[in-house]
Amino acid sequence: MAKVLVLGAGEQGRATAFDLLREPGVEFVRLADLQPKRIPSFLERHLGGRLEAVAVDARDHTAVRALMERHDACLCALPYYFNLDMTRLAIEAGVHFADLGGNTEIVRRQLELDDAAARRGITVIPDCGLAPGMVNILAAAAMRRMERVTSVAIRVGGLPQHPEPPLHYTIVYSLEGVVDYYTTSAWVLRDGRLAEVEALDGLESVTFPVPVGELEAFYTAGGISMMPWRYEGRVAQMDYKTLRYPGHAAIVKAIRGLGLLSSQPVKVNGAEVVPRRVFIACAEPVLRKPVARDLVAMRVEVQGEKDGRPLTVRYELLDFYDEENGITAMERSTGYSLSITGLMQMDGRITERGVRTPDGCVPVDAYLAELARRGIEIRKTESGLAGLSGLAG
C-alpha cells in the first residue's frame, strides 16, 4: 500500500489527489499547500480518512524534505519554478518524484541529476501533464512504429464549451502561465534543424469532430519539451501548437503589440506599474468563470515510413468537463496523467531509475489503458500502409 505526497492544492494538484484516492493500492494521500484549506467539494469527503491536507511553504526545504521522507512518492503540481528544488529534495529523501513540468530549461537541469537519482534507486520524471506529458508519450509511441519519421505535429488546447467574446477563452489553469506561453518564443524542427519561432505565429486551421468544429493553431513554448533537441537531425519537421477558437491569436497579438503583456515597468502618474500584472488583474475576473465547463482537444500526428511505405499515425482526444464530480477536462487530462505516472513509478511498471522524460520511460499501452479506465478515451488511427486504415484505442 502506497503513501503519496501531492505538492500543490491548485486545480491540477486537487485532481491528482482525487484520482489517487480512487485507487485501492493507495493507502494515504497527503495534499500539501501554502493554503491547505482551499479544498474543493469533490475532496472534502475524504478528509479525516485517507486524505490529509497540511500547510507547507515550498521555500522551506527542511519541512518539505521531512514530508517527502514519510511517503513512497511525491507528485508535484506546484508552479514550474519550484520543480528543480523539489527534485533535489526528492533525491535527498529517496522518494520517486514526478511533476507537471512546462519549462524546458528547468527540465534540462533536472536531467543533469540523473546519476544522483539512480544512486538513490528512484525515478524522477518531469513533464508529466497533458502537454508536455501525454502528447510526448503518444508522439514517441507513434515514432517507434516507423523506420523513418518525416514529421511530428502536436496540437493541444483547453477551451470553454460555450465561448464568449472577446477572447472566446476561459481560464482553466493559471492566466500568468498562459501569458508566459504567449510571450515566450518556441523551438521547432525545420528541415531537421532547430529553429526558434515567435509565439502566436504559424497560424493554421484545424478541424475536430462535432461539437468542436474549426479551431486555429499557433506556436507556443513548452508543450513539446526536449523532443526537438532529442530528434534534431533525425526528423525533418516537428512542432507544437496551441489550439483556440478562431480569432483568438489576432486579438492577443494586438494586446501584446501594445505592450500590455510586457514585464518592463512603466510610469503612470509618477508610479511604476508592470503592464503584465495590470493586464492579469483586469482580465482574470472576466476570464475565470464560477463553473468552467471546458473541453480539451488534442491531436498528435506523426508521418513517416514503415517497410518502405508511407505511414501516418494519429492520436486524437476530445474530453469534457466532469459534471458528476465538478472536475474540469483540463484537470482530468493533466492531473490524471500525473497520478497515473506516479502510480506506475510505485508499482514497478516504470522500471528505469534516474531522471527520465515520460516519452522515454512510460509504457504507452498501460498508460492508454489507465486513461481509458478513467473515461479519457484516446482514438488512434493508422493509414498509408497498403492503402488501408485501421482503428485502435
Outline the structure in words.
Helix 3 crosses helix 4 (83-93). This protein folds into two domains: 2-126 and 330-362, Rossmann fold; 134-321 and 376-392, 2-Layer Sandwich (Dihydrodipicolinate Reductase, domain 2). It is 32% helix and 29% strand. It starts with a strand and ends with a strand. The relative contact order is 0.16. It has 13 helices and 19 strands. The chain has helices at 11-21, 41-44, 61-68, 83-93, 104-111, 114-119, 134-144, 175-183, 227-230, 248-257, 275-287, 329-347, 364-373, and strands spanning 2-7, 26-33, 51-55, 73-76, 96-99, 123-125, 148-160, 186-190, 193-197, 204-208, 213-219, 237-244, 266-268, 271-273, 294-306, 309-320, 354-355, 379-383, 389-392. With 393 residues, the protein is an alpha/beta fold. Strands 10-11-12-7-15-16-18-19 form an eight-stranded mixed β-sheet, with helices on one face. The protein has a seven-stranded parallel β-sheet with strand order 3-2-1-4-5-6-17, sandwiched between helices.
Q: Supply the number of structural domains.
A: 2
The CATH superfamily of the largest domain is Dihydrodipicolinate Reductase, domain 2
Q: Tell me the number of strands.
A: 19
Q: Round the mean pLDDT to the nearest integer and report it.
A: 94
The CATH C-level class name of the largest domain:
Alpha Beta
Model regions low in confidence, pLDDT < 50 over at least 5 residues: 386-393
CATH architecture of the largest domain: 2-Layer Sandwich
